[in-house]
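Researcher: Let's walk through a ligand-bound prediction step by step. First, I give you the protein sequence. Second, the SMILES string for PBG. Third, you return the three-dimensional complex as structure tokens. Ready?
Model: Ready.
Researcher: Here are steps one and two:
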Amino acid sequence: MKPTVASFPATRLRRLRRTPAIRSMVQETTLSPGDFIWPVFVRDGEGEVEPIHSMPGVNRLSVDKVVEAAKDAHALGIPCICLFPYTDPALKNEDCAEAWNPDNLSNRATRAIKDAVPDIAVMTDVALDPYNINGHDGFVEGGEIVNDRTVEALVKQALSQAEAGADIIGPSDMMDGRIGALRTALEAEGHQNVLLLSYAAKYASAFYGPFRDAVGASGALKGDKKTYQMEAGNSDEAMRLIERDLMEGADMIMVKPGMPYLDICRRAKDMFGAPTFAYQVSGEYAMLAGAGERGWVDGEKVMLESLVAFKRAGCDGILTYFAPAAAKVLNG
Ligand SMILES: NCc1[nH]cc(CCC(=O)O)c1CC(=O)O
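Model: Step three, the predicted complex:
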């Protein structure tokens, strides 16, 4: 596109910015609660609302409280809630079997939400890190994060989530071949309507720090995730990963983290035209919410500005811890 601009004063671009009414008429991108997927942290117990110190305003919730959160989200017009379990350290080991336990925390929360608020979509996370004694997304053998044996486990995990009623499965593990394996298994087991939202372009990022505290994986993690998550300097590789996942049966794709990778969102949308999501991750949230809390920035304004940026960059939606706060502002 080459914008046409006649010379001054035939064109005075400030005319279009003069009043709120005129600015609203020509606004190119808008934000609404329907754009949000709300990630929540689930813990055991009842009546539990446990603050996460590195994410001001975010709590670990017991299943009953997650159900209340889902009701609130639905009332605010948020279409989807995404579950991340904080697993009891006693249930973590090297075989990660808790990941496909039909009665694990994530599956109990899914069933409880689908019972109480059937209209909200439930998204679940596929990766072994909440269950793995060493904090990695895959099995570790002799210091290596092994691919194919991990994919077999991810399939069992995803099937248990589909069985529990998950609408959207989000593989965040970055193993090769998992989208194809998951799609094949879901089709074979009668879950042909379950959606796959692939964490297709997921970078090995320091912005995940507060999340790892929230799910209790920080202490456990040995080494880094660079043999499966992407290097920050790469963009062509992101396009290869997205194309590969779409060809294997992903319905939607994600770029993660969000703000430092808006160029990847734009490129992905332009290149593939698939439903594209960005994850505004825990570290991004911590920076904005933390600075807002101290009065260093206007918390509400930076929240909305950061979120509309994703829409402008081509995203169809955003996973954000701000979802309920932003929806409240947008609903007026
Ligand atoms: N499967 C791990 C996973 N799923 C979502 C996040 C990060 C989300 C966030 O930071 O908000 C991570 C962290 C990681 O890869 O170490």
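Researcher: And what stands out?
Model: The CA atoms of residues 9 and 36 lie 42 Å apart. The two ends are 35 Å apart (CA to CA).
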